[in-house]
Amino acid sequence: MSPAEQPQPSRTAAVRRPTLNAVAARAGVGRGTVSRVINGSPKVSDRSRAAVERAIAELGYVPNRAARSLATSRTDSVALVVPDAQSRLFAEPYFSEIILGVSAGLSSAGMQLLLVLTGDETEYGRLAGYLAAQRVDGVLLMAVHAEDTLPDRLAELAVPTVLAGRRGEAERLGHVRADNRGGARLAVRHLLAGGRRAVATITGPPDMDVARGRLDGYRDALRDAGVPVAEELIAAGDFTEQGGRAAMRELLRRRPDLDAVFAASDVMASGAVQELRAAGRRIPGDVALVGFDDSIVARHIDPPLTSVRQPLAEMGRTMASLLLEEIAQRGTGQRGVVLPTELVVRESA
Amino acid sequence: MSPAEQPQPSRTAAVRRPTLNAVAARAGVGRGTVSRVINGSPKVSDRSRAAVERAIAELGYVPNRAARSLATSRTDSVALVVPDAQSRLFAEPYFSEIILGVSAGLSSAGMQLLLVLTGDETEYGRLAGYLAAQRVDGVLLMAVHAEDTLPDRLAELAVPTVLAGRRGEAERLGHVRADNRGGARLAVRHLLAGGRRAVATITGPPDMDVARGRLDGYRDALRDAGVPVAEELIAAGDFTEQGGRAAMRELLRRRPDLDAVFAASDVMASGAVQELRAAGRRIPGDVALVGFDDSIVARHIDPPLTSVRQPLAEMGRTMASLLLEEIAQRGTGQRGVVLPTELVVRESA
DNA sequence: ATGCCGCGTGGGAGCGGTCCCACGGGGTGA
DNA sequence: TCACCCCGTGGGACCGCTCCCACGCGGCAT
């Protein structure tokens, strides 16, 4: 045996896995043919295809992703970016369920999911270049703020991007969101149908699109029912429990006669419950309450909270397919997709 | 300009990014030197290093991960595998918080996090080969069942692996877990200190290590206090709300005189609350209750639940560092790490 | 019979890094 | 002065795949 024929010792301790070359040799065909079989090209004779498939099975061959990626300059992976993950926001089932949907939507297309949780600001700033350099095929962006510039930088770098939610009405990038306005309308209509007339609302931060949508829905429902909108029945929260309590206290001060509250999130609703209790109001006897999100707390607070449900997993799946579409052919694909919400009636209203 | 000098049109629409070659040309050095600078080799003169660093900055160069990975047969990425993600279990803050810690622990080492959520069984079965073929540098495995063989197959394939929790006392693989036994002991000791004597427990599935640990802690605390363990005060749940209700009902039937319950999870505790209410018992007046996990429901059920907290984020961080250690030098690294738990006292006990 | 077409095919040339060998030049000791 | 060493360096070979060009061959029209 000449030196050249001796197998080179591998550098790493890892098991040496069969290459496409090995498959070709075993199947008695060329590399090109094996590649064609793997990639499902029709230009392969049945004979060769069978031989290759047998060789693949016998060797337990699986293509090396790095090599393929280097050759094609695709990666078959997308990044899911959650900014600001520290702020235990990430622990909200909101994210998990969307991720679940995303994962389902991607894996059926053979795509990998890269989870990128960014901590501080500066880290987030570096992200655009980083993502482009990693050559992920696309990016899913969660929880973008109105003034966030990352989406635009990604767009400049020609990285296909899909957002969860939009930054504002004029969002140019592809995105998926729930019908917040419609959901809020459902909630308030339900309160009105229950005979309530002084319906207050605790909103989210006014600079967030979801918050505005839910407030608009509140107004819609009142208008539809011919009930005038009273501005003193509207108080701003910030999607936190504390914010919910403060807003509720303020509302009770302004309008002690209120008989219903629509809170733009379950967490704020839970704060409202505490404040209502403290003020001696019974729920739903004195004050009916509806939340938004149908999160886990909705089922567990006392009384169980009527809430608006968003189809989170489906939103994730939709995000995945929008992104795949955009990756396949840039510039195609619908801009924004709105998914319907639904009212889950429990005991609080 | 000869044809050979004309830039080749790039195949994809993406912007062509500078390569290491371009940096070398611009800096007036060889490829090797650039590579050395990037990888922090000391064998580079200050002069060359400065020139290279300038060129890198000017071109905005970022190394191509696929190429590096092909050459080194490392990937600088690890997979986090969550089996069975369908079962909305994944939505538990448990996972999110651990993932948060994992992400923090990895990103500081420049490692990427690949999230792999498996649905059905067959998919899970293919996973070992798949993971080895993707050449992730390591695997983090969540929620392994006692009879799960994936860890062993990964070990055979020489893939560094760290588990969240262990399959049993004899776990050979690296893993991180909370001190379940100690936490349970804290919980039950707290109940005894409150003057309770007929302390029941709702356990998890007996084939799960966490469940056994928490049951052992329950026994420990009673023994420490000289209170005999009564088997009829022990009922098995399955970590679901339904299971908790059923177990609580059974316990009330067996021992109507019980005055305290330690539930091995908050979710089961929440089921127990419902059943206790239905039986007309007040909490904590008639029956004191302690849960486990300090999950979000603990804060929101009525009354707020005293519960045992596990340091989830830290568990994630520890998993990451164990894995990195194992990747750096196989076979080193401690087998199992146990992190302390802590009792969070609220109003239920 | 001869040309032509087109199908299946083999294999060369990259993709962009790392690894390592070989080489030039300045310092050191004999 | 000469041999030796070591340090910094350039660049060839290679990682495993895809892309694409060129080629052989059988079937069809001429």
Description:
Chains A, B: InterPro entries: HTH_LacI, LacI/GalR-like_sensor, Lambda_DNA-bd_dom_sf, Peripla_BP_I. Chains A, B: This is LacI family transcriptional regulator. Chains A, B: Keywords: DNA-binding, Transcription, Transcription regulation. The structure is a homodimer of 349-residue chains. Chain A is an alpha/beta fold and 349 residues long. The first copy, chain A, folds into 3 domains: 61 residues, lambda repressor-like DNA-binding domains (434 Repressor (Amino-terminal Domain), Orthogonal Bundle), CATH 1.10.260; 129 residues, Response regulator (Rossmann fold), CATH 3.40.50.2300; 130 residues, Rossmann fold, CATH 3.40.50. The first copy, chain A, is 44% helix and 15% strand. Chain A is built from 13 helices and 12 strands. In chain A, the strands form 2 sheets. In chain A, strands 2-1-3-4-5-11 form a 6-stranded parallel β-sheet, sandwiched between helices. A 6-stranded mixed β-sheet of chain A has the order 7-6-8-9-10-12, with helices on both faces. In chain A, strand 8, helix 11 and strand 9 form a beta-alpha-beta unit. In chain A, helix 6 packs parallel to helix 7, helix 8 packs parallel to helix 9 and helix 10 packs across helix 11. The N terminus of chain A is likely disordered. At the A-B interface, helix 4, helix 5, strand 2, helix 6 and helix 12 of A face helix 4, helix 5, strand 2, helix 6 and helix 12 of B. The structure holds a DNA duplex (30 and 30 nucleotides).
